[in-house]
Amino acid sequence: MTFGFAPSSATSTSASSVSADSVNRLARMLEPAEWASAGIPLLRSPREVVSGLHSRHRPTPATAVVAVLDHEERLTASASFARRSTVAADGWEFRNALLAQLRRVIPHDLRRRTPVRTAVLLYCRDGDERWTEEDGAWMWGLRDACTLHGLRCGAYITLTRGGWQVLGEGRGGRRPSSLSEPSLLADTVSAHDHRSAPARSGGGAVEALRRTAAR
Q1: Which of 21, 59, 60, 98 has its CA 20 to 30 Å from the CA of residue 162?
Q2: What phi, psi does 204 have (nearest 5°)?
Q3: CB within 8 A of 48, min separation 6: which ones?
Q4: Residue ranges of region Disordered (predicted)?
Q5: What pLDDT, in 10s, does the model give residues 33-72?
């Protein structure tokens, strides 16, 4: 004779809930191939954009920097925030965090038929440059936040000990890295300086990052 115990309805419901949550989280992430086929616009000067954001926000591991660029790749606004360690790698949570930052630093463009500004995301993290599920969740979150704020979804960039990499494009460099000392090219300036600054010459994103007052 054998004896067994049937799982209680509470245990069964709990297990089902955990399983459904895991499936949902997996659905809220993008793999590099999906990202590459999504028509994400290429940055003309990724190294300059990365260097400027690194100098301005000085990110450490688990710090995200979201930046909005105009059609000439000049920085319009940017914000940095630390990822909460208690939150799982869920695109929905990341979307909400990014959207909150975007709403704080720049008005939405939902009334435009076509987006004219582009949001890019720089995420400083531990590990190497290879794609992770956390990266996939950030990609999903960035794409969704851009849609809800009327922006074009731009590049997703990781910053690790080995350097920086634009995921889905294969472009990257060794400096800056998560271990680099920030350069001095993006000192904080006043809003008055930003308004009176001359037009950018030569298409250099670094010069725009130096001038802008967005934080």
Answers
A1: 98
A2: -80, 120
A3: 204, 205, 206, 209
A4: 170-215
A5: 899 888 899 999 999 999 999 999 999 999 999 999 999 9
| Nearest CA-CA partner of 143 in 164, 115, 163 | 115
- Please return the burial class of 3, using the count of CB atoms within 10 Å of its CB with bins 0-12, 13-18 and 19+: exposed
Alpha-carbon torsion (95, 37, 152, 199), positive or negative: positive
Contact call for residues 131 and 137 (beta carbons, < 8 A): no
Give tens-digit pLDDT for 153-187: 999 999 999 999 999 888 999 999 999 887 654 33
Neighbours of 78 (CB within 10 A): 25
Preceding amide of 176 cis, omega within 30: yes
Which residue is it, tokens 């967005």? 214
Which string of DSSP letters, residue by residue, matches 104-148?
A: HHS---TTSSS---EEEEEEE-SS-SS--HHHHHHHHHHHHHHHH
In terms of pLDDT, which residue wins out, 6 or 100? 100
DSSP designation for 191: H
Structure-derived torsion over alpha carbons of residues 202, 46, 49, 168, reported in degrees to the nearest 10: 150
Task: Tell me the helices (H) and strands (E) count for the chain, helix number first.
Answer: 7, 6
Which token pair is 191? 């809003």
Q: Per-residue pLDDT tens for 25-41?
A: 778 899 988 998 888 99
